C-alpha cells in the first residue's frame, strides 16, 4: 500500500496498526512533546508520570514507549528505564547524509505532481519563515514547507522514512536554527525561495540539487558546533 507523507509531527503510517487506542494516544502525546522540545536528548521518560498524565495503566505506556523506540525517538534499557534518544555527532552526521540522498529523491518524485495551488502555498510558507518571530515558529513553518513539497507523490516506504529521519534529528535542527538565526544567516531562506522557483518551473533536477545543498549546509554547520551535542 502506498501512502502520502503529511505535515503532521509524524506520518500516520509510523504508528503500527493493531495497537490499542490508549498506547497510540500516549505515543502521539509523547512524540509531540519530544519534537516540541519539552524533553531534551538524554532526558529520562518515567512510565509512572506518563501513566498519571494520560490516566492509563502501565501496559499501554510500555507499548507506547516500544512504538517510539522503533521510531528511534526513545531508547529503552531493559529493567532500567527509558530515555529520549541522544545522538552522537557521528550518528547525526550519518542521518543527515542519508537525508541528503533520500529527501531530494522524494522531492523530485513530487515536483511533477504539485499543483499551482501547492506552489502558492509553498511560496507563502517561505515568506512566512522569513518573518518568523522565534525559533519555534520558524521550525513549525519549515516543517510545513518541506512536508507540503513531499505530500503529493504516493510512496511505499520513502515518505515514512523521511518522516522518521526528520523526527530523529528534530532537536539538532532546533539547535542549528538558533545558531543561524543568532548569526543573521539567511541562506536557508534563499534555499527555500530557490526550491519554490524550481518547482514552479517543473525543474525536478534543480529542486533536487538545491535541497541536497540545503541539507548538507546544516550537516556541516552542526559539525562546527560540537557543543550542541553536549549533555
TrEMBL record:
It comes from the Bacteria. SUPFAM superfamilies: GntR ligand-binding domain-like, Winged helix' DNA-binding domain. It holds the Pfam family GntR. Residues 20-87 form the HTH gntR-type domain. PANTHER family: TRANSCRIPTIONAL REGULATOR, GNTR FAMILY, TRANSCRIPTIONAL REGULATORY PROTEIN. This is GntR family transcriptional regulator. Keywords: DNA-binding, Transcription, Transcription regulation. InterPro entries: GntR_C, TF_FadR/GntR_C, Tscrpt_reg_HTH_GntR, WH-like_DNA-bd_sf, WH_DNA-bd_sf. Transmembrane segments: none annotated. It comes from Agromyces tropicus.
Amino acid at each position: 500500500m502506498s501512502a502520502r507523507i503529511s505535515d503532521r509531527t509524524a506520518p500516520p503510517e509510523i504508528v503500527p496498526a493493531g495497537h490499542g487506542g490508549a498506547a497510540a494516544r500516549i505515543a502521539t502525546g509523547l512524540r509531540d512533546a519530544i519534537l516540541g522540545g519539552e524533553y531534551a536528548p538524554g532526558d529520562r521518560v518515567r512510565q509512572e508520570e506518563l501513566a498519571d498524565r494520560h490516566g492509563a495503566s502501565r501496559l499501554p505506556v510500555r507499548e507506547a514507549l516500544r512504538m517510539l523506540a522503533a521510531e528511534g525517538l526513545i531508547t529503552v534499557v531493559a529493567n532500567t528505564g527509558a530515555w529520549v534518544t541522544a545522538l552522537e555527532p557521528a550518528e547525526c552526521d550519518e542521518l543527515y547524509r542519508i537525508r541528503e540522498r533520500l529527501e531530494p529523491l522524494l522531492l523530485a518524485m513530487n515536483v511533477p505532481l504539485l499543483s499551482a495551488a501547492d506552489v502558492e502555498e509553498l511560496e507563502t510558507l517561505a515568506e512566512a519563515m522569513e518573518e518568523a518571530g522565534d525559533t519555534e515558529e520558524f521550525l513549525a513553518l519549515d516543517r510545513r514547507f518541506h512536508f507540503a513539497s513531499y505530500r503529493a507523490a504516493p510512496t511505499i516506504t520513502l515518505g515514512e522514512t523521511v518522516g522518521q529521519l526528520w523526527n530523529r534529528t528534530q532537536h539538532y535542527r532546533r539547535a542549528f536554527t538558533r545558531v543561524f538565526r543568532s548569526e543573521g544567516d539567511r541562506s536557508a531562506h534563499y534555499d527555500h525561495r530557490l526550491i519554490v522557483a524550481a518547482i514552479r518551473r517543473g525543474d525536478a533536477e534543480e529542486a533536487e540539487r538545491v535541497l541536497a545543498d540545503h541539507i548538507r549546509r546544516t550537516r556541516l554547520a552542526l559539525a562546527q558546533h560540537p557543543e550542541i551535542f553536549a549533555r
